[in-house]
Structures are given as C-alpha cells and as structure tokens.
Specification:
single chain; about 325 residues; alpha/beta; 7-stranded parallel beta sheet; 3-stranded mixed beta sheet; 11 helices; 14 strands; about 40% helix
Length: about 325
C-alpha cells in the first residue's frame, strides 16, 4: 500500500509518516527541494519535488497511491486571504488532482482542527463532532471552508476528517516559547479564571490518524482525536516545571486586555516581516477562551482509539527532546 502525505516535512506530518512507515506503508510526500527536510532524512520515503499549487507535481504525487493523508495547512498568515489559499484552496487543488489522476483511491484523510468547532461552552459540554461549527477566527473559518470542500467531493473520494486540538511533542517549535518561559521559573496564566483545554501528544494523534485511515467504518466520518482528559495550564506548567527541575514557579496572570494588546501589536509588526506572525490579535482571541475541550467518545467507540500517552509522559518526552536538541 502506498500513501501520499502532505506536510510530511513538518511537525505533525513527519510523525504521521513515521506511523505509516512502521505499519509497512510505502510513503511518498510532496515538498520543494528548498524545504527543510530534517525530519524526513534517512527515512524510506519518496519525495516529489513540488507544491499543492503546481498541477504537474500534484499529478506526480497522487498517481498510483492507495491513500492520501493531507496534513499540510497554514496555521499563521497575514490575513484571511492567505489562510484561504493555504487551507481551502490547497485542499481543493489536491482533491481535484485525486479525481483526475487517481480516481480509484481507497481513502483520503483530511487533517482539520478543533478551531472549526470553536470553543466549548463549559466543562460539562465538550465539543462533539455533530455540533454546529462556530469558528471564531480566520484560521478556524478557513479550516471550516476546507472541510466543506472535502464534503463536496465525498461522493467521488472516500474521505475521513480528523479534528485535533492543540498538539504537542517532539519536533514542535510552536509551543517551545511556553517551555522556555517555564524554564525561567515562570508560570504564564491567561486571565484570572481556570481555563480547561484538550491536548493531544503527537504520537497519539499520528496513531489515531493511521487507525482512521485503515478503518472502513471511518469513510464519510469526522473524528476528534485528542486527550481523553481535560487540563488546566496550571497543571501543564507544574509538570513542565518538575521535568525542568524547577521546585517553584512564579504564577504570572496576564489580563485578557493585555494579552489582546500584545497580540495585536505582534500581529501588526508581523505583517511587515518576511514570515507571518505566530501571535496576532485573532490568536489572542483563541487564547482568552475559557474552554477548548472536545470529546473523544466517537473515536473510542468507532475506531477503538484511546489516549496512550499521559500528560506526564508526554511532557517528559517533550522536555527531554528539547534539551537533547539544545532548544532548552
């Protein structure tokens, strides 16, 4: 069985590639030669030089594969138009190529985000897959638009949608700042209320994606692949502090208005830089929500999914990896 993985040079995509290689799949991925291939080096994987906006490279990428796992997408952009191009339009290009050049494909797996659903209303009502989608940011809206593209093609392409919450683990640079802050003896807390979040270790996510890709029952379905438990950032910070040898952390409460102000300035400055800002006003809106929680009941029932990496184990592995890499 041959699988094409988009975004395989990135954090989540490289772990999905690892999972599929371990299961005996022949892995192909599409990326520019100028991309950073550090996480794919020395792996038995075929690289197609190209992008999701180049028809010739897409033809070469999808022809002859049994399965496509679409991980690539934009998590940071200067405006909504950029997000639409990276999330909706890239998805449409890939699905068009599949329909043209590999119409007999067995499965297309689309990696979306909990952001399409929006935050949960309270701890007793985590997001389920059948709830109305209420994204609150451009990122969430464009990931929702990408899901709509997938649904429009489901009669032709057997598809499964995966919605992870925040992902952490080895190879992730996005959450590194949080660990660096804890390493300085600080516990960053947004606002003065206890926020609850779902998190997923990248190894659990990659396994859940692989399980969904292999399940016939998953065709036409959407799944939250996440932790079974919900966490507070205080819990996460304390565990990270323990792993980093910090006996005490100084809690720093950042008022919502301050978070939004800093995020707005960062976004404004970032629009003038070469790369889009990781932190902007809309990311600030995400950060001040009280609940970002989702239910894994459907994935447990239909896929046999369960969280295997505890928060303690996941934080320990992540910290150790950062230290081994010299990032902490």
């Amino acid at each position: 069985m041959k699988v094409l993985i988009t975004g395989a040079t990135g954090f989540v995509g490289s772990h999905v590639a690892d999972a599929m290689i371990q299961r005996g799949y022949a892995v192909r991925y599409v990326a520019r030669a100028t991309s950073n291939h550090q996480w794919m080096k020395n792996k038995p994987a075929e690289c197609v030089d190209g992008s999701l906006y180049d028809a010739d490279s897409l033809k070469a990428a999808v022809t002859g594969v049994d399965m496509v796992i679409h991980v690539a997408g934009l998590t940071a952009a200067r405006n909504e138009a950029e997000f639409l191009k990276g999330n909706r339009d890239a998805t449409a290009n890939l699905l068009d190529a599949i329909k043209r050049f590999d119409p007999g494909i067995k499965r297309y797996v689309h990696i979306s985000s909990l952001a399409v659903s929006g935050p949960s209303v309270d701890e007793a009502h985590p997001i389920t897959e059948d709830m109305p989608m209420r994204p609150i940011t451009a990122y969430g809206r464009t990931k929702k638009a990408a899901e709509e593209v997938v649904h429009a093609s489901m009669n032709e392409v057997p598809s499964t949608i995966i919605r992870p919450p925040a992902v952490y683990g080895q190879r992730d640079s996005a959450i590194l700042t949080f660990f660096q802050t804890v390493n300085r003896g600080l516990m960053p807390l947004i606002g003065f209320d206890a926020k609850k979040v779902s998190l997923v270790h990248v190894r659990d996510l990659a396994r859940g994606i692989a399980d969904a890709a292999e399940s016939h029952h998953a065709i036409g379905q959407t799944y939250n692949i996440s932790s079974d438990e919900f966490y507070t950032w205080r819990e996460v910070s304390k565990l990270a502090g323990e792993m980093l040898g910090k006996k005490r952390l100084l809690p720093i409460h950042l008022p919502h208005a301050l978070v939004l102000g800093i995020a707005g300035i960062s976004g404004f400055v970032g629009k003038m830089s070469a790369k889009p800002p990781v932190l902007d006003y809309e990311k600030g809106i995400d950060m001040i929500q009280r609940y970002w929680t989702c239910s894994t009941e459907k994935a447990r029932t239909e896929l046999g999914y369960r969280q295997e990496v505890s928060l303690e184990e996941g934080i320990r592995e992540t910290v150790n990896w950062y230290q081994d890499m010299g990032w902490l």
